[in-house]
Fold:
Amino acid sequence: MKGKVNLKMLSETLGLSQTTVSRALGGYSDVSEATRQRVLEAAKRLGYQPNPLARQLATGRAEAVGIVYPFSPSYMGDLRFQEVAYGITERLAERNLDFVIHSSRPDAELDTYRRLIDGRRIDALVVANTRANDPRIHFLQERNFPFVAYGRTESRVPYAWFDFDNEAGGRLAAERLIGLGHRRIALVHTSLEMNFALQRKAGFVAALRAAGIEPDPELILEAPLTRVGGYEAARRLLALKEPPTALLVDNNVAGVGALRALGDSGWKPGNGLSLIVYDGIPGDIPLTYKVTEVCQPTGQESGRALADLVADVLAGKPIAELHVLRAPRIEPGDTDGPPPGAKRSRAKSVG
Structure:
């Protein structure tokens, strides 16, 4: 077929209505998978390219999903976020939807939300880094605007979300360290306004108490979600009169800093303090050993799941069906083991 192929020509070629073809291209759930694949294959074969302006005018949709991400001068980049963004982009592209990252000042996210929605520049939003009481969630619910939250909140109004069982992850890490014989176990966590941090701490504390260990406030430190924050928190713990024998860091950004602080103190993996980092150390940090981690599905997997939820929200699926909770697991490495005293005692008993 020569010339530019428009929606009408594509519809006539397939013997389908323009509405059916349009909804198939848009990924609507009321079009069967077989029909959708047939339309997509024909569109690719014939070189169909939608007219973005005409399509937006006809459908009232921008054919784009957005995420508002606050940046600051000290922002160093989050490798996992980049993986998630890639997964979202990859899956939305299959539905001819764009994924757009909108930068914002940390204290002006809601202003950015208003501009995007009022300007009809996006059809839905992904809300990342959810807080326990999140004003962005409340705002979107009040505006009845489609969104998917990357994390749960305390909102009693139902909404679509993707999350990990953070409480289980904090508990698994603490239970592993307790099982190795540790009793002075430290936690470095980010702000408890972040719901994941609140949940991970709750799991950690619950595991200690279940083992008869009362959490020591001196060993539970809040640190900014930065490498410097993790570095300074680990240094404070190491400087204690009675330092911890084990440490859990609840995020991999601060985990990099904590690892550097341990290295500066002469620590070597398997010798001295045990370390577990939630989400592990990013792959762009060269190490000759593996850090024990609380492991979650990859960022790309998470991104694809978020994109599927966005498509379901736009297709009008019941919110009660749009909740995805993934379970974490421990990925053993070289950085944790019994406390040094336990090792010596064991060596004496063996000898």
